[in-house]
Amino acid sequence: MQQPPSYQTSEDEEFSIAPAQTEQQSAQTPQELTDSVVRTARAVRRRPIVRYVGIALLVVVGVVLVTVAIFAIQKAQRSAPNNVEAYPGARLISERKTANSDETVYAVNEVIDKVGAFYNTQFNNDSGMCQRLIPAKGDPVPSYKCALDTSMLDALQIATVTITYDTKTNTTKIVVNRSWNGGK
Fold it and tell me: Which of 5, 154, 163, 183 maximizes the CB count within 10 A of its CB?
């Protein structure tokens, strides 16, 4: 058999290029093939970069799973309406309910600014606010509009309170509207 050609490297090392092995020479038993794959896998696992990449992938997967769980919990919390307390001593005038909304109307013999202050304490946070509206020309009494919006993504959850003074009955009228859908 003919000798393969040899070459000289810059460090005076000699190497040669061997001819390709025939199919008979390269045939391995299944056990030898398995052992070879296992040795290669162990060698790759021992490399620090492979460990770091593996750990980074696990961290990313963990963060994604936690984020999905948090959003699912937040969405489930929006499948019911915001809680809006009735003004103490207010009389229920009317109530209308649908699958994802309701409207409740109350009347109370109280000064409108005192009722507005009560709802301002409920709605004065990061998700809500109350505003005293300037009366229109010819209307002697101001009104209040309060809104609380805790919606997230496609999960709707809104509550509004409108406070007006009814001069015919000399009562303060409170209209509470709530809408929600829980992302459905």
Answer: 163
pLDDT tens for residues 136-146? 777 677 889 99
Q: Which residue, 97, 96, 82, is CA-closest to 155? A: 82
Let me know: does 90 contact 172? Beta carbons within 8 Å.
no
**3-class DSSP state of 127:** coil
Contact between residue 7 and residue 16 where contact means Cβ atoms under 8 Å apart = yes
Residues in the chain, overall count: 184
In the predicted model, what is the mean pLDDT of residues 99-128?
Answer: 88
Half-sphere exposure (Cβ direction) of 41: Cα atoms closer than 13 Å? 6
Residue among 150, 98, 157, 95 at smallest CA distance from 126: 150
3-state SS class at 157: strand
60-84 residue pLDDT tens: 999 999 988 887 777 776 677 888 8
Count of other CB atoms within 10 angstroms of residue 172: 25
The one-letter amino acid at 142 = P
Per-domain residue ranges of the chain: 22-77, 91-180
User: What global pTM score does this model have?
Assistant: 0.59
